[in-house]
Design brief:
The chain is mainly β. The chain is built from no helices and 5 strands.
Length: 97
């Protein structure tokens, strides 16, 4: 199992926009690199003052809709100062977005 530990924080783009960051970096730098057939596990801690969840752009969620990141619809949000663990085993190579 390939394991990641992510902390979600407020971040700034260096100008005026407040965004979300992961592990003290812009969220677009939080990449998952996995070999075909390898299982991934991502431990996520919400360090924000509000609830959040993750949506997996490019990773199909067939059979794992409960981790698709639609708070209040397919999963419960991660509360402030709380954690959740996401599990996935991609069944295709590449991203599909």
């Amino acid at each position: 199992i390939l394991t990641y530990h992510w902390s979600i924080q407020s971040a700034f783009d260096g100008v005026l926009l407040q965004t979300l960051g992961i592990n003290d970096k812009p969220s677009n730098e939080a990449l998952i690199e996995v070999e075909f057939g390898q299982e991934i596990e991502i431990h996520v801690t919400d360090e924000l003052s509000e609830s959040t969840c993750l949506h997996w752009h490019g990773m199909k969620q067939l059979g794992t809709q409960e981790i698709d990141g639609l708070s209040g619809f397919s999963q419960c949000a991660i509360g402030p100062n709380s954690s959740a663990t996401y599990h996935n085993k991609p069944d295709k190579t590449g991203t599909f977005w």
